[in-house]
Amino acid sequence: MQVVNVGDLTIDVIWKDIKNLHLSVHPPTGRIRIAAPHALGLDAIRAFAISRLRWIRKNQHKLAAQPREAVRDYIDRESHYVWGERVLLRIVHQDGPPSVRQAHRSLVVCVPSQMARDDRHSLIEAWYRESLRHAATPVVARWEKQLGVSANRLFIQRMKTKWGSCHPESGNIRLNTELAKKPPECMEYVVLHELAHLRERTHTDGFYQLLDSHLPQWRDIRQMLNSLPLSTPAD
Ligand SMILES: [Zn+2]
Hints:
Shape: globular
Number of helices: 6
Number of strands: 11
Mean pLDDT: 91
CATH superfamily of the largest domain: Metalloproteases ("zincins"), catalytic domain
Number of domains: 2
Largest sheet: 4 strands, mixed
CATH topology of the largest domain: Zincin-like
Helix content: 25-40%
Order of helices and strands: EEEEHHEEEEHEEEHHH
Strand content: 25-35%
Low-confidence stretches: none
CATH architecture of the largest domain: 2-Layer Sandwich
Distance between the termini: 26 Å
Bound molecules: zinc ion
Radius of gyration: 21 Å
C-alpha cells in the first residue's frame, strides 16, 4: 500500500489484480481508498482521484452526518437498545457466574462488583449475539424455504462496515451483532438480502426482483437501517 496526498486529502492506494480503478470511502472516519490495476502508475491514480473529488467529499460528508452511538460504560441506569426498544441497564453485584437477562424495559446484568468495564462489555455483547442467533435462526429457515435455498452456517459477529454478508461458495451467512439493537424488521431484511445472494451472487436486476417479490417494503427498511446510529467501531 502507498499513501497519496491530493490537496488536503490522504488516499490509501493498493494495487491489485483487477481491471478497473475502484474508489471507496470507509466509515467511521471517511478514510479514502483506491484499488488500482498493477499496470497503473501514481500519476494516473492521482488524476483519477482529482476527477472524483466531488464524489469523495459528498461521501465523507454523508458519513460525518450519520449519527453515532455514544461510547458506553456498561454501568447502572445506562440506556441501551434491544430490538429497537430502549432499555436501562440494571447492574446487580453478586458473586457466582455472571448473567444477563431481559426484564421489562431493562437488561439485568448480574456480575461480581470488581468486574472491569471491558468484561461487562464482553458479557453484554455475548448476550446480544445469543439474542440475535435465537431470533435469526427461524427467520433464516423461513426465507430459505421461500427462496428455495439452503445456507450452510450462520455466523453472528461484530462487523465494522456491513450489516451482513454472504459467501456463495461456502453458503455461509454472517450477521452483524448490532442487528440485535435495531427493530426486528431490519434483521428480517438483512437475512433475506444475504440468502438472496445464494440465488443471485451480485446485485443484478434479478436480485432486486427477488427482494421486491418477497419483501416489497425492503427499500424503506434499508433506508431506516442506514439512518440508525452506527456503533462506535473502536468500542
Ligand atoms: Zn448484497
